[in-house]
Structure formats: C-alpha cells, structure tokens
Specification:
The protein is built from seven helices and twelve strands. With 246 residues, it is an alpha/beta fold.
Amino acid sequence: INNQVAAGCREAVLTGVEIGQYNDKGVRLKGLLERVLADTGITRLRLSSLQPDEINPELLRLWRDVRLCRHFHLSLQSGSDGVLSRMKRRYTVADYHRAVSLIREVVPDAAITTDIIVGFPGETEAEYQDSLSFCRQMEFARIHVFTYSLRKGTEAASMQQLPDKIKRQRSREMLALADESALRFRQRFTGRTLPVLWEKQDKGVWSGLTGSYIRVYTRTSEDLTGKLLPVKLVEIERDGVWGEIL
C-alpha cells in the first residue's frame, strides 16, 4: 500500500472472497486493519462486503480512526427468514438487524449498503412483503437489487420457479424503494461539510465520494484529481449531491 501511496493513491479498498474470514498466520481482519492503519500512510481505507456475524464491538472500535470510511456493505439478499433458509444463508433477519443496530450505535452516520434478490424460487407474496418491509425499516444508503435468474445445476434450479411477470413486478417495487431510501440518506447530509475524494470530471463537472459513499458533484476548472477536500453538500443532484468546495 505504501508504494501506492507514494504514487498518489489516497484511498484503498480491502476486498476479497469472505474478507471477514481473513486469517494469515493468526492475523485476522481486525489485526490486518490495525496493521494497515499503523504501518501505511493511506488517507482513507474502505472495506468490501462483510457478513452480519462478523460485526462486533471490538472490530467497530477501529472506526475511531477517521481514516476508516463510514461505509459498511452487508449483503442481506432477503428480509425473509424463509427465503434466507432456502438460500442457505448463515444468518437470520434478527441477526442482520442486530448487526445494523450495533454499527449505528458505534459508528453514527455510517452508510449501510446491501444486496437484495427478488423472485428467489418459492418466494411467496408474504415473504416478499416481509423483505420489502425490512428493507424500508433498515433505511439503507443504497440497495443493489437483483432479480433471480435460473442457473442450471444449482439446487435452486430444482425449486419452484416464479413467473417472470411476478419477478419483474417485485423488482420494480424494490428498485423504487431503493431510490427512495438512497434519496433520504443523501438528504440527511444536505447542509453538512464532509471530506470528498475527487475522482474524475466530465465537461467541467467533477465527481467524487465521501467516506459514507455519497457521490458529490461540483463545477470547477481546477484539477481536482486525487484531492481530498472539505465540501459543503448543498442540494440533491441526480444520484448524488451538489457540493461547494470550501
């Protein structure tokens, strides 16, 4: 990472399959984060997807360091225990709720993003409504919505498949909720000043991200590439917020 920092990198993302299960000669994820924060000059550090059972007070205490991004991606997949069981997920809706509550207690204003699958085989109307209701309750910063598609040879392929019409309808409803939830999250930060890491520009309009994964736009002729600057978030703009550099 230090080589990347020397080359101008300001943010690193720790990612991998089951990153929460990282174990290198006894060094687990918490220890890895501690080493990166202690031994590198990285300005911002972001984690990829975690599982609900990997969220605990000891891990979250590391977020006292402002370099750790206030952003947690916890894949939910469904807000119905019945569907989660058929998916063979190792957590329940209650487990997920406890993880989110703990994050919000220890890391206020954190963005919590998730993945949702609609139309999983056998998903009843009641199970779908449970999932929709739970997603609304969680007030996610962003929901990535996926419609189940059959993959031959999988166990799910042998289950009762839903008609495409129902899957499309549920996808539209969940996507509408995703838009509403993301908008409400961005509105919470309007008027506040947050550090923004500027990434790219298009026709004079620059875009970057806050640590809480809010897309911010501003217009300037200055080259902002890789700069981390305090920005006042002034109004909602497209999928993000329009900002004024201070």
